[in-house]
Amino acid sequence: MLSNRRLLLASAARAFSFAAVIGCGSSNSSNNGVNPAFEKVVVIGDSLSAGFQNGSLLDTQQPNGWATLVSSKAFFKLPLPLIGAPGAPAVLELVSPGPPPVLQQASGTSPGRDNPSEQAYDLAVPGHTLNDIINRVPVLIPASAEDVITDAVLALPLGNDQSQMNQAIRLKPTTIFVWAGNNDALAADIAGTPAVMTPLGTFTQEFQQLINTLHTQTKATLIVANIPDVTLVPYLTPAALIIGEVSAASGLQSATVSALLGIKPGDLVNTTGLAQVQAAIAALKQGHLPTPLTDEAFLSAAEVAQVQATVDAYNAAIAQQASAAGAVLVDIHAYLNDAAQNGVNIAGFPATTGFLGGLFSLDGIHPTNTGYALIANQYIAAINAALKTSLSPVDVTTVAATDPLFPPNIKVGGSAVRIPLEAAQQADRVIRPAASFR
Predict the structure, then answer these.
(1) pTM (2 decimals)?
(2) Residue 98 phi/psi, 5° resolution?
(3) Bigger pLDDT: 427 vs 367
(4) Is 39 left (phi over 0), alpha (psi -120 to 50) or beta?
(5) Beta partners for 238?
(6) CA dihedral sign, ordered 355, 267, 316, 429
(7) Is residue 123 pLDDT above 70, yes or no?
(8) Bridge partners of residue 178, in order along the sequence
């Protein structure tokens, strides 16, 4: 666990010793020939904008996020709230690509921020919903894992006590990147039901509040991304793959396995379901009939369609509010849909959205270095089109060549590799408010 008391004490101690060396990010206001729109840039959102991957916010991974990659091409500085090893939560590591893949969680406890005296301009906090971005503030005595990670990002330098939205306003940026609402949708994956997604009316009201507040209380250019189809992430395992796996382990016909487990091709199995599948295989090996998967263990094909329809409605609200505020809209939804359907050819390799397919990291929800580079290029293309700039794209081939999770670099075996239970559980820790960072 990233200790609450250790975080506060370490932050206070480091603030003094590092102050003369690190400074407070004031150099972000110097133009130096940079496009005036990018003189001072702030990023708000959730883990997808924080450079989070492999189940962890970690200093060696954060600079590979899309926002930092965009900053390198637009020549603006973007100080990050760097979290010391082994990260929060401790990072997932690939022991063997398998199949089946073998993962482990790094040992140890993060000391907290590497740079506690530096004002972060990437304010995105893993786990934050749209409401959190507007309202959640650091607390003196964290009572939950989400409090701890919120403090690590937003409470430093000591004395910061505002939400992401209000800190963004206080920093007086010339541009604000907003990618908000992903966790409002991802809740369905974790719970196995679309019923837990933020109601459309609430989402629309909150998004309007966020964009209107930023638009009226700053002079910033707003660059807003929409929400991807959260049913496409490899955190969710296709039921057909599970049925085949159990059939091979038990010797039963696929139709029999489907009936016993209560799942069908087209359904998607989550963390709860993977644990129940393990129990089912054990029961079958002992000659017992397994218990069917519970409702919270998977999204049925009909529920998948409901989640997708709700995400589409969220994105319609996002597009409407972005247009009303004159914001630049980045269509991440369309791009990832195309990647899921057609793959992405990178240096002759067909990267996919499957687990260990090259685009998503070990937690099955957050991109790899390569995935973040592709997302950065969607932002760059949208910026160039809307603002008449000529930013060069990120060289994705170069990023992939050194990406430790790009398939040719790790020689993944097999074409139907699913996420291990341990990795799915790590993803749950980030999305569930009651999760434990350890």
Answers:
(1) 0.91
(2) 75, -145
(3) 367
(4) alpha
(5) 268
(6) negative
(7) yes
(8) 44, 224
